[in-house]
Amino acid sequence: MTKIDAKIPSGALKDKWTKHKNNINLVNPANKRLIDVIVVGTGLAGGSAAATLAELGYNVKAFAFQDSPRRAHSIAAQGGINAAKNYQGDGDSIYRLFYDTVKGGDYRSREANVYRLAEVSANIIDQCVAQGVPFARDYGGLLDNRSFGGVLVSRTFYAKGQTGQQLLLGAYSAMNRQISRGKIKMYNRHEMLDVVIVDGKARGIIARDLVTGKVERHSAHAVVVGSGGYGNIFFLSTNAMGSNGSAAWKIHKKGAYFANPCFTQIHPTCIPVAGELQAKLTLMSESLRNDGRIWVPKNMDDVKAIRAGKLKPTQIKEEDRDYYLERRYPAFGNLVPRDVASRAAKERCDAGYGVNQTGQAVYLDFASAIERYGKETAHVQGLDENDKALVTKLGKGVIENKYGNLFQMYEKIVDENPYETPMMIFPAVHYTMGGIWVDYNLMTTIPGLYAIGEANFSDHGANRLGASALMQGLADGYFVLPYTIGDYLSNDIRTGPISTDHKAFEEAEKEVIDRLEHLINNKGTTSVDTFHRKLGLIMWNKCGMARNKEGLTSAIEEIKALREEFWKDVRVPGGRFEFNEELAKAGRVADYLELGELFAKDALLREESCGGHFREESQSEEGEAKRDDENFKYVAMWEYTGNPADAILHKEDLVYENIELKTRSYK
Question: What is the membrane topology noted in the UniProt record heading this document (predicted)?
Fold first, then answer.
């Protein structure tokens, strides 16, 4: 197998990033004005990168398929953002954040990248505070922290349950400053449909104006893709329905290696599926597990009575409840990592203890927290701690201050008051750790083409710890890419403007138009959503929370057959030169039908369990994930050769010099 140079600097781990910044080439301010950079995607990663690159002096062209950058899916992030500031004085440090992240990812991420992430995390908080992000503060006015799964410290900064929205508004304001200066040219309602390679380098993109349907050529000296993940390949996920993996898949087909596609995160606290016609799932922030206790009834008779509507969960006695995470993982309890919590919920539901009509739900209960906070508040105020009604009222007030908007969202969707009755939750697809392979500089295998945020694979291994997505996106955009891209662009100061008249632009544009015309003129009988839903069922049933050889082998064949059927029978109404969301959706689903096969192929090859990738053939006697470090301690890098079935595997061996490889234990 080919071994790829990840360009990891030599020297001690704690010195690598500093040494690297000191040694890479720079572009002086006057020359930055001569260089164009395209940024695809304007969420936290793309938005922060566009703003920072423009602030440095580069000419930035930013592309968003939404009507505004502030509509990026980053806005939906709820719980918080990690940073190693140790404000709580509970033992946190850069090393501990680094260690927790590598361990949480089940030892399938690069040490150097993760340490750099932990190192710059503190800078992110300072940057966002300076932008006016309204992080929660404690009584003394200092920034507050809470804990998330997989850690024993409180390092998560938050703004109620809308942290992503507030952080995105910070990046958006920074972008707006540069837009008004003319340093960012914003292309809203534009979707990237291909990357253009000139003489081996990324020199532009082909984009479609989603309002007019016009296909356009855009050139630059470098292209940055920050277009998010591919969780919507499962159809039902917590992602916005417009979120897609097309930009990443397009650059993969042009030569960027795709890494670890099977590493997908299942989030344990989502509102359960309500019916067959549902098209979107809603996340309930992991922060709720700080105060909510997860349980199912111990007795099957109680389960049956609850499903029949004859018994309420509040009527079940404490001794008749199975707080299964606290039982199985006493050291971490309800704050085990997401993959562990998700599999534990699945195990209880598979055993028949699910509490909703479908049997696919468990309880997240705040009664204990309401009582605890109520008594504490009553004590502080000198009130009667034995007045149950008063304690409940005060406790609900504390919970409302911490999680109010999340409780309100739950009640609007489920029509139940979570202050009075436990929430019902079940795991759902949330985040993708796999993505475009990048080196230490965040460059793909195509020179001049970068991938940042969830679009790349680099920092989370086989499982992402909660509150680390926002950390990685902003780290890449604000503090990593602006340094490393200069090392490449320093060779372009005499290049001059890139012409869109080059043959490579013409060929790429023709490919895009031919594909669009084919979809419009196919005149099939089946809707795009029908194919997407069928793909999602295959993915969830055979590539979801548990995977096995038989199911994955079957999934590959089923996806192939579905893809063939799609190109024969898909129906796309409307025309090409108009606002046509079905046409845009068709292109994205076509990409998913290729990516899905590679996903299953990658999962089939990785005959171990690690993080979110759970192979039923590889588990301990207790049902825990069982890694195989001897044979699978590598990043799987897939090279496109014309068909997912023929993709070529390359390996980047993972070297651990600062962390001892252990079997993960949260007990």
Answer: Peripheral membrane protein
Q: For the chain, how long is the longest CA-to-CA vector?
A: 80
CB burial string 472-500: b at 16+ within 10 A, e below: bbbbbbbbbbbbbbbbbbeebeeeeebeb
Q: Is it the case that residue 314 has pLDDT exceeding 70? A: yes
Pairwise CA distance, residues 255 & 647, whole Å: 11
Residue 62 belongs to some domain of the structure? no
Whether 571 is catalytic is no
Q: Quick one: 421 and 513 in the same domain?
A: no
Give the residue numbers spanning the domain of 322: 269-429
Beta strands in 481-627 (DSSP E): none
Euclidean distance between CA atoms 339 and 266, whole angstroms: 6
- Both 524 and 420 in one domain: the answer is no
Compute CA 482 distance to the chain's CA centroid, rounded to the nearest angstrom.
Answer: 22
| Closest C-alpha to 629, from 650, 651, 653, 600 | 653
* pLDDT, position 1: 43
pLDDT digits (tens, 9 = 90+) for 163-215: 999 999 999 999 999 999 999 999 999 999 999 999 999 999 999 999 999 99
Of these residues, 338, 464, 547, 627, which one is catalytic?
338
* Count of domains observed in the chain: 2
Q: Is the pTM above the cut of 0.85?
A: yes
The closest alpha carbon to 154, from 290, 328, 11, 8, belongs to: 290
Residues 424 and 508 both lie in one domain: no
In tens, the pLDDT along 85-98 reads: 999 999 999 999 99
End-to-end CA distance of the chain: 38
CA distance 424 to 414: 9
**Is position 109 within any domain?**
no
Please give the backbone phi and psi of residue 436, each rounded to the nearest 5 degrees, phi first.
Answer: -65, 130
pLDDT score, position 66: 96
* CA neighbours closer than 13 Å in the CB half-sphere of residue 354: 19
Query: Which residue is it, tokens 């932990």?
Result: 118
DSSP, collapsed to helix, strand or coil, labels residue 310 as coil
**Bridge pairing between strands 222-225 and 449-451:** parallel
CATH number, domain at 382?
3.90.700.10
